[in-house]
């Protein structure tokens, strides 16, 4: 397939997801960009805004294998990565793969499990492999973690470690739908829509793993001038100098911003990224990489507020 055909396929992908998910176009676009950039995504939203349905529909439209894990306080690392099981017939231990061995891992309510289990995902997310019993096992290609998180419920939850947050390419916020979108949701359910039966909803695969790999290679070839690269670095460095910020964006955040900007530029038919692409990706890519000072949080300052201010202040290359 040519670049143009691949791009059109991804536009159709967004349309297919829209057959099941209403009013979350920005989140659908963010998930698409994350896939193209080969990253992981953190979905934040109150219960009932279709976070799980969004990921399930995307994987169905991509003909990729997906597995869902409900994160709970008693979930152990081996429950994710797999463990050694004794085979009485063979008289030896064999490794039984955990749910992480899939293309898209849906980690529901990731902040409900202790840091020990959360950290079990670190190697999988960064190295795309699992080490057990001294043996390293590669994960399937492609591999993406799509984790969900409830922003308003804190009882029985654990703060995600900074090192793990930094591994997510994007943090997407799913807002409550507008009135007309909520009415459309009810109309679909009244007509018999079943969120557990995506085939009946008319969602059909439009891409496969091979085509996704070709699109990722095309994204990697998108150019970036020295001025635009310096602009992305200046945005990241400005977060470290903000008086409201305790911990700013690391160099890994700068590379994530570049990767997402390339994917967004490619989707829009550009051969090289522009400052507009960098600005469009700044909030979803950087918002979870900023740790605010306690006094700033008490004053109601948010990471998005700081980033919008920085975008206005940092000089844009002409």
Can you offer a commentary on this structure?
46% of the residues lie in helices and 15% in strands. The protein is α/β, with parallel strands linked by helices and 318 residues long. The strands form 4 sheets. The protein has a 5-stranded parallel sheet with strand order 2-5-8-1-9. The longest helix is centred in the last third of the chain and has 17 residues. It is globular, with a radius of gyration of 20 Å. 38% of the residues are buried. The model has no long low-confidence stretch (mean pLDDT 89).
* Annotation, overall tally of beta strands: 11
Number of H- or I-type helical stretches = 14
Q: Helix/strand-derived class?
A: alpha/beta
Cα Rg? 20 Å
For this structure, the quaternary state is single chain
Q: What's the average pLDDT? A: 89
Taken as a percent bin, the fraction of beta residues is 15-25%
Question: Helical percent range?
Answer: 40-55%
- Enumerate the strands of the largest sheet in spatial order, edge to edge or round the barrel: 2-5-8-1-9
Global outline: globular
Describe the largest sheet.
5 strands, parallel
Unreliable spans: none
Quote the distance from N terminus to C terminus. Answer: 35 Å
Order of secondary-structure elements: HHEHEHEEEHHEEEHEHHHEHHEHH
């Amino acid at each position: 397939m040519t670049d143009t055909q691949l791009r059109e396929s991804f536009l159709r992908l967004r349309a297919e997801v829209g057959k099941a998910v209403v009013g979350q176009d920005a989140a659908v676009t963010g998930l698409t960009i994350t896939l193209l950039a080969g990253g992981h995504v953190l979905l934040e939203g109150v219960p009932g805004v279709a976070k799980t349905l969004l990921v399930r529909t995307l994987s169905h439209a991509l003909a990729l294998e997906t597995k869902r894990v409900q994160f709970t306080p008693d979930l152990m690392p081996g429950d994710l990565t797999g463990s050694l099981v004794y085979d009485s017939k063979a008289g030896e231990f064999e490794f039984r793969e955990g749910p992480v061995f899939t293309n898209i891992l849906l980690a529901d309510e990731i902040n409900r499990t202790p840091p020990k289990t959360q950290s079990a995902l670190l190697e999988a997310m960064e190295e795309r492999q699992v080490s057990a019993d001294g043996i390293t096992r590669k994960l399937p290609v492609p591999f993406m973690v799509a984790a969900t998180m409830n922003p308003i419920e804190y009882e029985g939850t654990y703060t995600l470690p900074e090192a793990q947050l930094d591994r997510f390419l994007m943090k997407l916020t799913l807002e409550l739908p507008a009135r007309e979108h909520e009415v459309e949701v009810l109309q679909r359910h009244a007509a018999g829509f079943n969120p557990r039966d995506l085939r009946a909803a008319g969602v059909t695969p439009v891409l496969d793993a091979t085509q996704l790999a070709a699109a990722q290679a095309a994204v990697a070839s998108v150019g970036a001038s020295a001025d635009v690269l310096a602009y992305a670095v200046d945005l990241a460095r400005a977060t470290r100098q903000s008086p409201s910020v305790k911990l700013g964006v690391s160099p890994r955040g700068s590379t994530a911003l570049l990767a997402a900007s390339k994917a967004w530029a490619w989707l829009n038919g550009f051969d090289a990224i522009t400052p507009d692409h960098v600005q469009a990706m700044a909030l979803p890519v950087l918002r979870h990489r900023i740790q605010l000072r306690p006094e700033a949080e008490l004053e109601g300052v948010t990471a998005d507020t700081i980033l919008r201010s920085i975008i206005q202040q940092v000089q844009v290359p002409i």
